[in-house]
Design brief:
single chain, about 200 residues
Length: about 200
């Protein structure tokens, strides 16, 4: 097997650290694995509410930090905790995870033929310090027919996804005509910023 010294550089730099991903998202898990990281997954429940006066980017950062709160007292000397949040914003309205199929249909109908922003934030924390960062990508949807939305909801059931869609799934393949920014930010984690900040952490 061919060895990639660049891919191993981040893993080597963090070899004495215990990386914890506080997320049940299979997409975030996949992204960190592709960066070459070794990590464990641990999820602790929080109520994801936020002050109403916050702007969408501030909401994403607030929620990423909120998810780290249950871990604060338990982090050891070698632990690095990764928490994150992704929100979809259309005309300054935050589209969270749909509560049911009807709301998911409504969200995708709103996104049809429009551009929106996806904001992914990350909070890295250890016993001694923390750092926050975010990235914003603009996504342009083509027109989605009712039958296309119905098919996607029936077969992919994207009810655990902000904005009711996953860019890497069928709806992204047929419905997204352009993005401005990082594909991985829309998936849920800005990989270039993760790499950069973990190398310095």
């Amino acid at each position: 097997m061919e060895v990639n010294p660049l891919k191993d550089r981040l893993k080597d730099r963090l070899k004495d650290k215990n990386i914890i991903l506080a997320s049940g998202s299979p997409r975030r898990k996949q992204i960190l694995e592709e960066l070459g990281l070794s990590f464990s997954i641990e999820i602790r429940k929080v109520i994801e509410s936020y002050p109403s006066h916050l702007s969408p980017p501030e909401v994403a950062l607030y929620l990423a930090k909120l998810k780290a709160e249950p871990f604060k007292k338990d982090l050891g000397e070698q632990d690095i905790l990764i928490t994150g949040d992704t929100i979809v914003c259309l005309d300054n309205e935050i589209l969270g995870k749909p509560k049911d199929r009807e709301e998911a249909f409504e969200m995708l109908s709103k996104l049809s033929q429009k551009e929106h922003q996806v904001i992914s934030s990350v909070h890295l924390s250890s016993k001694e310090k923390s750092v926050d960062f975010k990235d914003i990508t603009t996504v342009h949807f083509d027109k989605l027919s009712n039958s296309e939305i119905d098919y996607y909801l029936d077969y992919y059931q994207p009810f655990d996804k902000a904005g009711a869609y996953g860019i890497q799934e069928w709806i992204g393949q047929i419905g997204i005509k352009k993005i401005e920014g990082s594909f991985y930010t829309v998936m849920g984690m800005p990989t270039h910023l993760i790499y950069e900040n973990l190398m310095k952490f």
